[in-house]
Write a structure and sequence with these properties.
Protein name: GHMP kinase
GO molecular function, one term: ATP binding
Number of helices: 11
CATH architecture of the largest domain: 2-Layer Sandwich
Structural class: alpha+beta
Order of helices and strands: EEEHHEHHHEHEEHHHHEEHE
Radius of gyration: 20 Å
Domain GHMP kinase N-terminal: 79-171
Helix content: 40-55%
Number of strands: 10
CATH class of the largest domain: Alpha Beta
Domain GHMP kinase C-terminal: 247-309
Keywords: ATP-binding, Kinase, Nucleotide-binding, Transferase
Shape: globular
CATH topology of the largest domain: Ribosomal Protein S5, domain 2
Length: 331
């Protein structure tokens, strides 16, 4: 029995990053890039390392670049953490797992450290493989919680639920993380939206070497927890962008969506520090006439473009600053 599972990259379209602050978001799965997991029975539980997990390097500079983009441990810790969290979930739910071992390996085409959620895609694909191998069903709204707990509790990665929800649900999803809803049922209200309602979207991401995500933080959460008015009000306004965006999508109002994408970033920039590199992505896209906001925490942007001529300008102008432009494939 050979099991193969997959999870895709994702992009936050509107409301990002209010998901970590009881806000609202709209996100899409980006099927241009994905992470796959292969699992099959074996005498012992064996995690097969991939090329990016190697400890052999061509030079000191090869090691430096590898660590800059992949961290010190590659993808194997993600698989270990997911397997551990899966077993703990089954134990807590009194699900008795058969005594059978497996070999598991992963592969990914998701660009690393540019805000497209490559790490969580590997974890989602791992959970799907384990569920299939052991015949365990985890309710769809609960699975994102487990993926987030895997990253936060096991690996110390700072993240929100939005990425994991869209990677578990796929397509295009409107998410409401209202505090009352979260406290009452333990997860948000997730509404799949017809992806045919999406306007013409592009994504651009850095092709320069990035840095490991979850390592660089600022003080926004601490300020929010203290109730600092400018942070609380701005985060609420970012959540409203997603609410208004849902309404604009349903009425097919591309002009409003375009303005909301720009507003999302402009609000974020009021309370978050934006690096020169990330700001250059935004500015280059807007000079072309497109809207632009972050897909995640930085490193890639998403926005609306008007026509092929504008898309071609995006290709040209963003290439000048070492960024690649794609049209996201959303089912």
């Amino acid at each position: 029995m050979l099991i193969e599972t997959r999870a895709y990259a994702r992009a936050g379209l509107l409301g990002n990053p209010s998901d970590g602050f009881f806000g609202k978001t709209i996100a899409i799965s980006v099927r241009n890039f994905g992470a796959s997991v292969t699992l099959y029975p074996s005498p012992e539980l064996h995690i097969e390392p991939q090329l990016q997990d190697t400890n052999v390097f061509r030079s000191l500079y090869h090691l430096r670049d590898s660590v800059s983009t992949l961290g010190y441990h590659g993808g194997v810790p993600l698989l270990k953490a997911a397997i551990k969290k899966f077993s703990e979930y089954c134990e807590a739910e009194h699900i008795r797992l058969p005594n059978q071992n497996f070999s598991i390996r992963y592969n990914t085409s998701i660009p690393r450290q540019v805000g497209l959620s490559g790490s969580s895609a590997i974890i989602v694909a791992t959970f799907r493989a384990l569920m299939q191998f052991y015949g365990v069903e985890i309710p769809q709204p609960i699975l994102p919680n487990l993926v987030l707990a895997t990253e936060a509790e096991e690996l110390g990665i700072t993240a929100g639920l939005q990425d994991r929800v869209i990677q578990c649900y796929e397509g295009c999803v409107y998410m409401d993380f209202d505090r009352d809803i979260m406290e009452r049922q333990g997860y948000g209200q997730y509404e799949p939206l017809d992806s045919r309602l999406l306007p013409k979207l592009y994504i651009a991401y850095n092709t320069d070497l990035g840095k490991q995500s979850g390592r660089v933080h600022n003080d926004v959460r601490a300020r929010w927890l203290k109730g600092e008015p400018v942070v609380v009000e701005t985060m609420s306004a970012i959540a409203d962008v997603a609410r208004e965006g849902r309404e604009a999508m349903l009425r097919q109002d591309g002009k409003a969506l375009n303005e909301l994408v720009n507003r999302n970033f402009d609000l974020r920039a009021q309370i978050y520090n934006i690096t020169d590199r990330n700001r250059s992505l935004i500015e280059a896209a807007r000079v072309c006439g497109a809207s632009a906001s972050f897909t995640g925490s930085g490193g890639s942007i998403i926005g609306l473009y008007r026509d092929d001529a504008m898309l071609n300008r995006l290709f040209v102008e963003l290439k000048k600053i070492n960024a690649r432009v794609i049209k996201p494939y959303v089912v």
